[in-house]
Design a protein that fits this description.
By secondary structure, the chain is an all-alpha fold. Helices cover 84% and strands 0% of the residues. It is globular and about 70 Å long.
Length: 263
């Protein structure tokens, strides 16, 4: 193995990072189990990891449609947020007037409580998957758009001036300067949004719907099945974690120079 090759040096680092993630998750489960052993709390208030997993295993046969519906709403809304976030970031970067018109409402939109805007979206667009997708897009849009715009804004003007001297078009500037320089910021924004996407889908399902993890947890809560409620929470956490790690892996593939810089 050639130690001078950056990819060869990155491989042990990637393995150590994955190992630390596993250790972190195992420590979390261990602390949870210890809390149920040491604290005088009944199972119907704080179930142990074993009791929670047993409840999930008992409901495994009908959890599939709920999980698939939540994943569909989360991924479709997340994809829509990426497309709109990059578009708005590029538009704000291209025009000062567009920035002044878009940026303030964009910031003010974050002051709207999700619990207030989500019911309105459901009233306007119904209780289907499309409304859940819009709730997710609303949650995920802001970090992607702001990080994209800030990445565009911090591009070194010297590179742009160099391309202008060679008569580069706007397409060339985006291809050779803006996109490579902005990718780390975009990846950071999408990672933040990925961790919010499943939560947005669950909130939309919680307020109305027939399938989804939000519906499953609502039914568990109404029947006072705390073990099933905790099982739903664990599944939602794992879905968020999986989507975050997927975006993180894609981001590492798109920006290998960031990883080499961190060695």
């Amino acid at each position: 193995m050639d130690r001078r090759n950056p990819r060869c040096r990155l491989a042990p680092l990637a393995r150590r990072t994955r190992f630390r993630w596993v250790i972190s998750l195992l420590l979390f489960v261990l602390l949870w189990q210890l809390a149920t052993w040491l604290l005088p709390v009944p199972t119907y208030i704080l179930p142990s990891p074993y009791v929670t997993m047993r409840a999930v295993a008992a409901d495994l046969w009908f959890l599939g449609p709920h999980v698939s519906m939540t994943l569909l709403a989360a991924t479709s809304g997340f994809t829509l947020a990426i497309a709109l976030g990059l578009l708005f970031g590029a538009v704000m970067n291209a025009s000062v007037l567009a920035r002044d018109l878009i940026y303030p409402p964009l910031v003010l939109s974050q002051a709207i409580p999700l619990i207030a805007i989500a019911p309105l979206i459901l009233i306007w667009f119904g209780f289907g998957v499309f409304s859940k997708m819009l709730v997710v897009a609303f949650v995920c849009f802001f970090p992607i758009a702001i990080n994209a715009y800030e990445g565009f804004r911090t591009v070194d003007p010297a590179y742009l001036e160099l391309l202008e001297t060679y008569g580069a078009s706007a397409r060339d500037r985006y291809r050779h300067v803006y996109i490579p320089a902005t990718l780390p910021s975009i990846v950071a924004g999408t990672k933040i949004a990925a961790s919010y996407s499943v939560l947005g889908a669950v909130i939309g399902e919680w307020l109305g719907g027939s399938k989804g993890m939000g519906v499953y947890m609502t039914r568990a809560l109404s029947s006072v099945r705390v073990d099933r409620l905790f099982g739903g929470i664990v599944i939602v956490m794992l879905l968020s974690y999986g989507l975050f790690k997927l975006v993180d892996r894609i981001g590492r593939w798109l920006t290998p120079w960031v990883e080499r810089r961190g060695l």
